[in-house]
Every structure is written in C-alpha cells, then in structure tokens.
Amino acid sequence: MSNRVQDGVRLTDGQRLDWLRLIRSENIGPRTFRSLLNHHGSARTALDALPGWARRGGASRPGRICSLEEAEQELASARKLGVSFIALGEPDYPARLRMIDDAPPLLAVRGNNATLARSMIALVGSRNASAAGMKFAERIARDFGDAGFVVVSGLARGIDAAAHRATATSGTVAVLAGGHDRVYPPENVPLLEQILPNGAAVSEMPLGWTPRAQDFPRRNRLISGLAVGVVIIEAAQRSGSLITARMANEQGREVFAVPGSPFDPRCEGTNGLIKQGATLVTEAEDVLAVLRPILGQQLPLAIEEPDSVAPLPEPDGSERERIVALLGPTPVGIDDLVRLSQSSPAIVRTVLLELDIAGRLERHGGGFVSLV
Amino acid sequence: MSNRVQDGVRLTDGQRLDWLRLIRSENIGPRTFRSLLNHHGSARTALDALPGWARRGGASRPGRICSLEEAEQELASARKLGVSFIALGEPDYPARLRMIDDAPPLLAVRGNNATLARSMIALVGSRNASAAGMKFAERIARDFGDAGFVVVSGLARGIDAAAHRATATSGTVAVLAGGHDRVYPPENVPLLEQILPNGAAVSEMPLGWTPRAQDFPRRNRLISGLAVGVVIIEAAQRSGSLITARMANEQGREVFAVPGSPFDPRCEGTNGLIKQGATLVTEAEDVLAVLRPILGQQLPLAIEEPDSVAPLPEPDGSERERIVALLGPTPVGIDDLVRLSQSSPAIVRTVLLELDIAGRLERHGGGFVSLV
C-alpha cells in the first residue's frame, strides 16, 4: 500500500505515526518529506532509508531519527490537549494550504476542525499598534466574519489579537509558531481559549516546542497559505507582517494594505506595499470585491514538483562528486548546477536531497542552494 | 494679417486689445474664442461678426460686446498693478497649458514671467488641513523646488499656502480664481507679495472680478494644466482638490495622492484617488521618478479642434432649424446630433457655435450639449 500524497485518502494510525516520525526527524522539512515520500512510496520505507541518504550526502554524523516511542508520546500528549493531526491530502486538510509547495505534511489542530474547511482572509499587523489600527482591525475583521469568511492571524499582540477577538464568534484561526502547549505570547492564552469553540489553532511544530525568533517567519507562510488574501494593517519597515505579505505574493495570494500618514512609522510598510502594487483598503468591501471572483474559481491543481512523479535516479560516485564540487558557501542556482555538471535535472535533485538529509545543504529563495 | 493661433508669434498692441475685447465679451469662453478666431482669421473680424452669430443663434438680446474703452481701461489698470497679458501661442505662454483644449486666450501674469517657462508640479489640498498635512506639504514642496521644479497651487488656506510659502525662494505660481486686484482669501495677500519676486500669480479673469464659487473649479483646470503632475495632500470627499485631480486626468497629467488613515475624513479623497489609480506618495522621489521620463519627452502637438483648420460652412435655414429642434434641456451627444440631423459635423458645430454665442447653449462633459 502506498503513502504517496493523494487527495481524499485517510491515513491509517500506523501510517500517521510513520509520517510523524519522518517529519520530526532531523534535517527533514516539508519539501524533503514530500520528495522522500514520493520516492519511497511510504514514510515507513523512507525512515529505513534515511541513514543511507545521509551517508551518501556525506553526513559527518547521521541525523537523529524520531523514534516510535517519541512519536507515540507526542500523539498521546496531543490527544490529552485535544489536538489532532491532519495529514496533507486528507479530506480535512485546508484546501488552499494544500497548494503551497512547502505545506506541512501534518497539521496539528486544536478546536473546531470544521473551521478549516471555510474560506479564510488573513489579517496581520503591528504588535505595538495604534488605537486607530486596533479599531480598524476589529471593524474589518467583523465585516469579514459577517461576509462568511474565517479570519486567520498569528495571535500576536496588537492587530492580530484584535482580529481574533472580533471574530471569536464568527470563526477565526490562530496559527502558532511553537507547539500547542507553548502558546506565545502567554498573555493571549485566554483569548485562544475563547476562540476555540468556533475556531481553531494550528501548528506544524512539535508539542513542547518553544518558538524561537526564526520560527515566526516560517509560521507566517502558513497564515498566508491558509488564506485567499492577506490584509496588512500598520506595518513598520522590516516587520514580520511584510514577510507575510512577501510569502502571500510568492504563493499567489492577493495582498491588501491599509494606508496611513507618511509621518507614521507604523504605516511605512503598508504604504510601501501599496506602492508595490498591493490593493489599498479603507473598508471590507475593497477586499471582498477582489476576493469574490477568486472564490468562484476552481482551486489550481496541486503543484507537483518534478521529483514527485517517479522514484529518483541513483547518481554514480563521479556524478555526485562533480555536483558537490560545484557547490560552496556562495548560493548557486540549481539551473546552473544542472548546466555546469552536465547531469540530468533528476540526478542533481537527488544529490541535493542527499546533502539536505545529511544536513549539509541550505536552500535559499529562487532555486538557489549553498553548502552549510 | 492673420491672428490665427500660431506658436511663437507675438501679437501687436492692437491685436492684443482685440483679443482682450473678444474674450471679455458675453458668452465667449476659451473654446468659442478659438473657434471664432480660426473661422474669422482675427479677433477684430470676429468682434464685428458677433451680432450676426448671436442673431443666427436666436439670441433674445445681443450679448454684450466689450468696448475698446473697457479693454484699454483694463490694460491700463493691469499695467499699474504690474500685470501683463500673454496670448496663447506667444513664446512666453506656458508650454503645457497651451496644450489643453480650453486654454485661456490671454493669461494675466504678475511677478516674474520667466517662472512660467519652467517645469511645474501642482500641489493642492484641504483648506482646513491638519498640522501633519501642512508639514508634509512644506517638506515635499521644498524637495520639488530643490529638484528644479516650480510649485503651482491655488493660494488657498491650508495646503496651498504651505506649498507656496515653502517655495517662495525656489519659485512658485499662484493661480487666482478672480482678478489680480481681488485676491482670495485676503489674508494671503502678504504671502502672494512674498512669492512674486521669484514666482508669479496668474489669472484668466478680468481685473475687478471677485471670484464666485463656480470660478474655483474653473480655475482648477489651470492649476493642473500648467503642471506636469498634480499631487493631492489631504482631500475630503467632494472637495475642490478632487476636481483638480479629475481635470488633471482629463488633461493627461499624472495624478499623485498622499495616503492617510481610513479614519481621517481629510484623507478619504486621497485614499479614493489611489484606489482609482493615482500613484501613492510618501516622499518627493515617488513623484520625481514618474515625472523625470515625461520631461524628457517632447510635448504633444497642440490639440487642433476639427473646426480650427478652416472657416466653418454656413448652414441653411432648414438645416439650422432641424438641428435646433433636436436639442432640448436634456443633454444630448454631438455625435447623435450629427447622426439624427443628417447634417455634416461641420454644420452641426457651426449651429452649436451660433447657439453658444447667443447664450442659448450649455456644454457638458464628454461632448454633450443642451439648450439653456
């Protein structure tokens, strides 16, 4: 029986455990997970093959593999917290999130799972928001709720909290940067409890995981990925909300921004987004008018990565050597690697996967990679 | 000798008097002036022909024709005030204003005429501006001055005054809605005196003319017409600044707007303009980056109206009757008039000109006309 990512098929309990072990193993991210699953046909086989991949990738030490006991322990703790795991391809998995190319293989969900089946609008902004910004967030969030949308945000102080609070009844989703038992900021735990009956909290991180700084940008791709469009209210230059906006753009989501005075540093980011083409928003209808026609469209087909269609070819020793020799600390394009190594794209991808699993590869944006 | 509108030719003193008499005569606006001049070849001949036009147009009483004495009187008063008249087509006439299809035949100018030869940016906004809006106006006006541009505005309270004040040294042009001896608002007379040494005040209205409410929108087309681009800072819904923006659009000028909070009624107009496609501005460079390439382009050729190429044909009585019968108080398109009357476009234009001069025609936007 195959574990290949397929729509509409539920995992068995055993398969779910294997998936959890694989995604919780060292050096395995959502993209690597998907490549391995598609190559090996099941997480079980992939787990057995991990030491081989790491060895071929030249790992100085083998990456830690999540044990069956650890995975069972996480499942048990999750059950106690009321958290369930939804696997990529299962019917409950949020339809739009499914389409991003680094969608989490397993989404840990707490609250009312049905919320995830509805269309969502993301609403994010400053943690140290102005009173006007908070008021605007509440008003527009309520209007989105009245229009039948679920509001998704990051449970941060300021704009995020205002957006969740205003939609506690109509339905809202909080995406966490850490585990479900490590809610950040702690002051928003009561708010989270308040939104769960009609909403949900989701996370891709393990239980017990305290969020580090780098986990927030990573989390932001899920906020935009769940939504049809992203509305940014008050964002300074170089703020996390702008990362969400960038990810939304990369994921093909509509980006909306609320304008403000040129003298207000909290509006530099949003004004800048509008300059770059985001839609200016002063009321909910500005957003709804753009999103309504999109909802009517069928979802695009899942982006199948080239390596997902068939098992990867095995490079011979000299090919591997040639490709690794072309890599260094300076990021290089995968296209250039293919051209310069004179290997097939599939071979290059295989070698990069080996290096990935060996913990030796860093992937940058735009198809660039470097050695760690 | 012909008075036809030609570039680069100066009028004789006698011709200038005739032009002044014609444009100061009843029912003669800039468009009618141009049609008459192009039909008759000179303002002198047009003046003699006015009673005939009015009669053919069915005037209940002939329109008042400005006498030679009145015109000489205005020229003398103007000279005393330091006001000179620049005629459309003369070398000093502002190059961009020349291109709008209702450019004033005579522009009354006070101050430093050379200012009008430089590239201009219009800066307009609320009369009851916020402190932040005034501060922004001063800052961006100064930056435009530093970049070599003349700032043109309407001498109103608030944003206009701030823009003029900040560019009193670098060069600024105030466009008046009344005569040069009827400056509005009176409190800005000292500011006007302050900008004249390095700038100018311009008006198309007669000396002694106290501006009425309807003269301000009319004036606004000159503010946008003089400029390469128009920047709007703080504008409420249905404000005069939005009229300037609309005229700028119709004239093919670039429109820029400064954003603000959705809660600030003074920013509803500017946020609305950005939604409709105006460029969002938070600093001078946002404007300069758009305008620099435009300055490099050659000015478009003057829009020659179809009736300006040759004398108009004379309609016979039945044609005139048929066309007038098609008109009523409901605006109708000139195209439809041509089609329904089965007359030539030139004949229809002639009849409309007759009605115009008879004071019986109202011209609406988009080529629509109705009987008064």
Protein described:
2 copies of one chain form a homodimer. With 372 residues, chain A is of the alpha/beta class. Chain A is built from 14 helices and 12 strands. A 9-stranded mixed sheet of chain A has the order 1-2-6-5-4-3-7-8-9, sandwiched between helices. In chain A, helix 3 packs across helix 14 (345-357), helix 5 (131-146) runs parallel beside helix 6 (159-166) and helix 12 (317-326) crosses helix 13 (334-341). The longest helix of chain A has 16 residues, at 131-146. Chain A starts with 12 loop residues before the first helix and ends with a strand. The model of chain A is unreliable at 301-308 (pLDDT under 50). At the A-B interface, helix 5, helix 10 and strand 9 of A face helix 5, helix 10 and strand 9 of B.
